[in-house]
Amino acid sequence: MNRETVTIVSGLPRSGTSMMMAMLEAGGMPVLTDNIRTADEDNPKGYYEFERVKQIEHDPSWLEDAKGKAVKMISALLEHLPQGYTYKMIFMRRKMEEILSSQKQMLIRRGEPADSVPDEKMAEIFRKHLSQVERWLVEQPNIEVIYVSYNEVLENPVAQARRVNQFLDNALNVESMVSAVDKRLHRQRR
After folding, report:
1. CB 51 within 8 A of CB 36
2. CATH assignment at residue 74
3. Residue 100 to residue 111: CA distance in whole angstroms
4. What is the rounded CA–CA span in Å between residue 79 and residue 60?
5. Given a cut of 70, is residue 85 above it in pLDDT?
6. Where are the beta strands (DSSP E) in the chain?
7. What is the per-residue pLDDT for 39?
8. Burial class (CB in 10 A: 0-12, 13-18, 19+), 61
9. How far is CA 48 from the centre of its chain?
10. Is it the case that residue 186 has pLDDT exceeding 50?
C-alpha cells in the first residue's frame, strides 16, 4: 500500500462507514481517529471519527498525518479535499430506507426531534446529494473510488472484504476484515 496515499471512508450518515473503518483496522490498516466520540448504543463498536476532519475547509494540515492511513469523512465534506494529495476512497452505500430509519432511531435515543423533515423529503435530499458527489468524484484525477454496499457486506462479507483488499493493493488480511463484521448490528432491516 502506498504510504503517501490517504484512504478515505465516506458515505451518507448511517451508511456503514464505521463498520468499514473497523474492517480496515482489523485487516491491518492504520486508522486516524481521536476517540473523542465514544461508542454508544447506536455504534457499539465506536465511530472511528477524527474531529479535525470537520475543519478541512479551513485547516487541511491534518492530512499529512493521514498518509498511509484510513480516515472517515462524511460525504458533504469531500469537496474540500485538497488537490495536492492522492486518495483512495471507499464510498459506502446502504438502502435509503435503512439509513433514514437508523438516523431516526439515533435521534430518538438522543432526545432530538426525529420528524422535523419527512422521510420522503430527506430521501430526496440525500439522493440529490449523492448524485452531486458522484459526478464530482468522476472529475477528480487524484481520487480513485470503490463503491461498497453495506447490505452486501452483511450478505457476503468475504467477497466484499476481498474487493476492498484488492482495491487497497492486497495489503490487508481478509479473514481479519471479515471478523469485524457483526451482523447483529444490522438493526434497521428493510
Report:
1. yes
2. 3.40.50.300
3. 16
4. 12
5. yes
6. 6-11, 70-74, 87-93, 143-149
7. 57
8. exposed
9. 9
10. no
The CA distance from 105 to 110, in Å, is 9
**pLDDT of res. 189:** 46
Cβ atoms 165, 174 nearer than 8 A: yes
If one counts the domains in the chain, the total is 1
Retrieve residue 171's grid coordinates: 495489503
Residues of the domain holding 76: 6-179
C-alpha distance across the termini of the chain, in Å: 36
Per-residue pLDDT tens over the stretch 31-63? 999 987 665 566 657 679 999 999 999 999 999
Is residue 17 domain-resident?
yes
The answer to whether 18 touches 184, Cβ cutoff 8 Å, is: no
Mark 140-149 as b/e (b = at least 16 C-beta within 10 Å): eeebebeebb
Query: What's the pTM value of the predicted model, to 2 decimals?
Result: 0.90
Query: In this structure, is residue 120 part of a structural domain?
Result: yes
